[in-house]
Protein 1
Amino acid sequence: MSKYPRLPPLVTLVPFEAAYRLQNFTRAAEELHYSQATVSRRIAELEADLGVTLFERHRYDVVPTPDAEVLAASVRLALGEISRTTDLLRRRTDASSMTIFSDLSLATSLVAPVLGDFQRANPELKIRMLSSFEPIETTREDFDVGLQYWRSGPNPYEVVPIGDDSVYPVCSPTFADRLPAELSAADLRELPLLHVAYDNKDWIDWSQFLESFGTDSPSRTDGMTFSSYQVCLDVAERGEGVALGWARSVQPRIDAGLLVALTDLTMPQPDVINAYLPKNRPTPPHVRDFITLLTGRLRPGPVHSPGQSGGHRRS
C-alpha cells in the first residue's frame, strides 16, 4: 500500500497550478507546452478525484473557487520546495559553477577584491555570490564554500581556518584631533563608544576589549548600539564616537583617510576567519583553488597592528 494513499493523481497538479495562477486554460497549456484539451482533461480528472469544482468556467477565462484557493496554497508550497531541491541537486553536480556564501564583512573586504581576477583565471566558471548577516550554521542556502568569522555552533561542515585578524579602536580623523595625543584603556572608557550587538559569544565588544587591558567596562551607557558592524563604522566616520574595528575590514577605510586607529591597543584574534566546506560531497578543484587564493591573501605576514596600518592618529 502506498504511504500516501489519499494523494490525487500527481500528473494533475502542475496543470492545476498553472491554470490557477494564469486563470486561463489556454495560457496554462501554452506555458506547459500541452494542448488546451490536455489541461482541461487534467483539471476535470482532479475535480473528479476530489469531488469538488475547482474553477468556474467562463468564455475567455476561469475563476478559482474557494476549494481551489485551499488546494493551491498546498500545491504551490509543495511544488516550490521540489523546485528548490532539484535546483540544489543540479547545481551540486555542475562542475562549471561555484556558489560562495559569505558574511557581509568578509564579502566586502576579502572576496570582492579577488573575485574579478579569479573569474578571469576561470572564465568557464559560473560564480554565484551570496552575502548575509545570517550565520552559516543556520542558513538553508546551499553553497560550495562558506566564509565566516568564528564558529557559531555545531555544523555539518568541514571548517578550515584560513586567517587571523585583530581588533582596535577607530574613529574619524576630526574626532581624534579633539583628543589628547596619548590615550589609555581607562581614557577610552570615558569616550562616546559605538557598540555592535551581535548574538555571537565570540564577537569582541567594548567590555571584553577594555577588560583585556585591565580596565573596567565602559562607564558610559548612553552610547549608540547597532545591529550592523558596517553601519557602526559609517557612523564612526561621521565623528559620532569610537568603534572597534576589525583590522582586515577596516583597513580600506583607514587607507582612504576616513578612519584612523585611535591608540596602539589591539587584541589579536588568531585563526578567526574560517572556510566552510560541505561534507556531503567532494570539494571541486576550483573551490580548493579559491581557498588557496584567499589564504594567500590573508597570510602574507602578520595582521597589521594600528601603529603599522598607515592610518594611525597624529601623535
Protein 2
Amino acid sequence: MGVEDFFGDDAMELKWLEDFLALHTTRNFHTAAKQRHVSQPAFSRRIQSLETWVKEPLFDRNARPAKLTKAGEKFIPLAEELVRLSYEVRGEISLKSKSEEAKIRFATLNTLAQSFMPTWLKRLQPIISADQFYVNTGFGDLVGYLDALDKNDVDFFVCYEAPETFFVGKDRVVSSLKLAEEALVPVVKPDNDGNPTWWLPDGSNQTIPYLCTRTEISIWPVREHIKKHYAHLEFKTVYESNIATALKSMVLEGFGVAWIPYTLVAEELASGELVRAAEQEADIIVDIKIYRNPKHHEARLDRFWQAVASQDVLLFRYH
C-alpha cells in the first residue's frame, strides 16, 4: 500500500490520526479513549471513520490487546509524520504571524533611513512596545510612497517637507505629525589654506561641480533652493546618488558641492575636513514628518501613533 492509497475523496481530520496513534500506543480502546478525553463509543466511531477514509481496517478487533493489521503497521509512520508536520507548520505560521503583527513597517528616503530613523527609533523605544521595524526605501517617487500607504503596504511614511509646502494632494487622506527639523548644508572640501574650494556667493564666473541627491521625490527642496538663490550660477552635475553617505564621501574626495543633512556632516565641519560652501543663513531648514493613512486601524499602530504624538518635536540646533 503506497501513500497515494491512503487518500480518498472525504476529508480526514487530524484528531483521527491522533486517536489512531493513541490506540497504537495503549493497545486498549478504553484507555486510549480516556487519554483522548472522549467516550469510548465516540472514540471507536472516530477510529472507524479513519478506517473508512483509508479504506482499510487498521486494527484487528478480535485481538486482545488491540493489534494493528498489516495496513495499520504501514500507516503508522505516515500518521506520525502527518501529525508532526501539522503541528510544525501550525507553529511556524503562528510564529510568523506574531512576528508580522509585531513589526512596524516604514517607508522613507535613503537619506532619512541613515541620518534620522536609527536615533529617532532609539528615542522612542522606552515608550513603545514594538521592537521590530522594517524600513523600505524602494518606492521610487512620491506617488509610489503615498500609494504604499493607501494599499497598506507600509504603516507609516517618513519624509522631508519644506515648511511652506504641503505636498499631499486633496485626493489623499492622510494624517501627519511633525517629528523634527533638519538643515541641509552645502559643503565642500577645503583647499590647502582651509578655505572653501567653491564659495557659492562668489561663484558667478565658474562652473560649480554638483553632487546631486538622486531622488524621484518631487518635493526634494534642494532643486527649488538652487533655482531661487543660485539661478545666476552654472551647476554641472558630476555625480548622483540616493545615498547621503556616498555623497559625503565624494565631497571629502574633492569632487564638488553637495547639500547634505547637518547630522551627517557635523563632525567633519567641526574637524575642518569639510567646510561650508555658503553662509549658515543659506542652509535649507526642512521638517521631518510622519504620515499614516487613517483608514487603516490597528490597535498597535494607534498606540504607536499616540506615543509619537506625545513626544516633543526635535527642533534643529547647530552643535
Protein 3
Amino acid sequence: MINYYLEWEKFFEEAIKLEVPDFKAKEKLIYLGIGGSGIPGRLLQDLGIDVRIYRGFHAKSDVNTSALVVSYSGTTTETITALMDVLRQGYYDIVVITSDGHLEKIAQEKNLKLVKIPKGLQTRYSFPYIFTTLIKLVNNALGLGLNVTELKDGVSEGKERYVIYSKELAEKINGKIPVFYSNDYVGVAERFKQELNENAKYPAFYDELPEANHNEIESYAKGRAPLLPIILGLSEINDLTAEVINAIRIKPLFTRPLKIISSLLLLAGLTSLELAQRLSEDPEKLYLIPQIRSKTSS
C-alpha cells in the first residue's frame, strides 16, 4: 500500500501552484462540505475565520452570503443537495472545489467559479489540495496575508519526527478508546478521530475545551472505561486539563498556525496507518460507509 501521507510535501507543492478564481467574501461566509471534505472548513474556524459550516443536506444563504462548496469526489449527496438548496435561493456568489463528478457538472452548468484539483485519491489523502486552495481563496477574499508555503514547510520539517512518534502513539492507543481534545485546534482533534475511524476501523472520539471541563472530564474519575485522553494544541487550558485527567499531551512542533495544522494532520494520518497495521486492517477498505452512502444517494 502506498503511504500517501508521505507524499504530502509534494501534494502541497503542487497545490500551491494551482490557480484560484478571484473571490471577494461578502458579509457572511458559508462552507458546504462533509467528512474529509468538511474538516478543512472546520480548520478555517481554527484560524479564526468567521465561517458557518453546513455538513448536511441543507444550507441558508442570502444576498449578503458567499459560499465555498467542497466535495473531493464531486458525488457527495449531502453537499450537492445543500448546494442546490443555495442555488434555489437565487444567490450565486459561490466557489466550488472538486476533482470530478456531478458537482463539477453543476458548477459548469450554473457558471459557478470552479477549482479542479487532482483526482484518484481517497478524500482523506487529498487534504493538501483542498486546504491549500481554501487558504488561497480566503487570503484573496479577506486579505489575511497567510503564507501558504508554511503548509508544505510544516510537513517537510515535521515529517521525520512524526514518522517516529506515530509508532509510539499508535502503540499507546491500541487497546484503548482515544478521545481527542483541544481548545485552539478543535478541527485537528476531530481529524485525528476521523483518521482512526476510517483507516484503522477503530473507535475514537473528540470534544472541545473548555466545554468538556464542565461535564465530560468526570467520566475519567472512576476509570470505568478504557478511555485514553489526548490533548492537542498550544493554549494554557490544554495544559491544565491534561494535568487533571492525566492525558497524553501533544504540543505542536511549531508556533505558526498553518505549520501546526499541516504537521499535526500528518501525524494523525501516520498514526492511523500505524494502528491499522497493528490491527491487520486495510486502510483503503471501507465496510459500512458505502452502505450508508448507497441508502442516502438513492
Protein 4
Amino acid sequence: MVDYIEQKKSIKGWQKSLLKWLGIVVCIVCIACAYIPFESYYGDLLISLRMPLLSFTVVCSLLLMLTKSKGVALLMLLASAVGLGTLIPLPSSSQLSSQDTINIKQINLSYTNPFIAEHLTALKKQTWDILILQEFSDLNRHLLRPFLTQADLFGYREVEGIPYGIVVISRLPIVYRQQIKLDGDRLGYIKLRVLFKNRMITTYVAHPPSPRTRQHWHNRNRLLASINASVLSEKTPWLVAGDLNTVPWSSYFNFAQANSCYSQANAYTSFTPFDFIDSMFTGLPIDHCLFSRELSLDNLSVTPFKGSDHKMLSYALGVN
C-alpha cells in the first residue's frame, strides 16, 4: 500500500513537472514567433499575430506563477508585457490651431453583407465629408443613386466600374480621379483629389490582397510600396485610407513620413475573425488612415458594422 501511494505521488509529481516545462516551452515559442527576425512570408504572418501571441504568453505566465517556477514565469510575464506595451501607442497630445476639419468614414463592407441597403440609408443621414466603401459589389450599384444629387461619386459611372471593389462618395468636389493599375484590373489603387476650402487634398484609397497565399502577399507588398513611393513625391496634403491587410508593426507597413490613426489615437482593432470574442488582444488593426504632416487627427472612433467582420473607422482630419 505504501509503495502504491509513493508511486502515485511520483506520477503526480512527474505530471506537474511535465506541465511546468511544457508551459515554459510554449511561452518561449510564442515570444520567439512574435519577434521572428525573418522577413519571409510565414515570418510576416507570425509577426502580424504578435499581439495575440504575447497576450497568450501573459496568460500562460500567470498560470506558471502557480507552480514553483515563479522566477521564470515572472521573466516571461515581464517580456510579454513589455512587448504588448510597444504595440499600444500613446495618443498624441498635439492640437491643431486650425478649426478646419474633414470628416471621413471608411468601412470594408464585405461583398456578402446582406445589410448594405440598410447601412447606406443610415449613412446618407449622417454627417461626413468623405465616405469610403470597400468590397462593394457591382450588384449593389443601384443603391448609390440616392447620393447622386448630393455628392460626387467615384465608382458609379459605367466607364469607371467599381475597381477593386472601391466606391468613394464625397460631399467635397472631386476634381481629379485616377485608377492606378499595377497589374491590369487585378491589382491597383485609386487616386483622387478633393477640393476643401480652396485647397487640394490628395486621397489614395487601396485594398491590397489579403496575404492568404505567397503570391497575394507579394502583391500586397508591391501595392504598399507603390503607394509609399507616390506619397513621398506628393506636393499636396495627402491621405491614404483603406483595409491595407497589414498590421502597423509589420516591416512592410513602411510609411515613415506619415502619421497614422493608429499611432495618433488610442490603439484599436478593426478586424475580428471571431464573432463571439472581440477584444484588443484577439483582433487585428488592418484598416488604416495615414496622412501627411499638413493634416492632423482630431478624433477617431472605431465601431462595429453589422454584416462585416471589419469595423468602421470614423475620424476628422484637421487641415493647417
